[in-house]
Amino acid sequence: MLTTLPLLVALGAGLVGGVFFAFSTFVMKALSQLPAAQGVAAMQRINAVVLNPLFLGLFVGTAVFAGLCVFAGFVPWGTRRSALLLVAGLCYLLGSFGVTAAFNVPRNERLARLDSASPEAAAYWPVYLREWRRWNHVRTIASVVSAACAGAALTP
């Protein structure tokens, strides 16, 4: 269990972090270069399509395993491995899953309520891009740190 758990968190957080990294490094930049109506419409579709069993299973499943890592980090307390498991779990739960729920999802929901061709959408689009990217950078870093710590916890 203490070998499988960090392996699953390392793989899950690494995959999720890779998705977030892609958005931080080129997807959002490409969308920002489109006319606002097209960028908004494209992001609305992305936000709808991402809600699928495969991605949600990975994203939420990794959160479950990260939560188990937090508890495993206390047994036995005081070892290098326990600290790595605790950090891996907390980084993913707070920095990836928590930031998504608290900051990215509310912006996505606000964007979804707008008509992509409306003046309101055009006015909100630059704000959305700036704020969403800022929080996406945070969750990217948190996911990568979680994956690295979980991976390091695999070694004695």
Automatic annotation (TrEMBL):
Highest taxon above the source species: Bacteria
Alphabetical UniProt keywords: Membrane, Transmembrane, Transmembrane helix
Entry-linked InterPro entries: Anthrone_oxy
Pfam families in the record: Anthrone_oxy
Transmembrane segments: 6-28, 49-77, 83-105
Name used for this protein in its record: Anthrone oxygenase family protein
Species annotation: Aquincola agrisoli
Lineage, top ranks: Bacteria, Pseudomonadati, Pseudomonadota, Betaproteobacteria, Burkholderiales
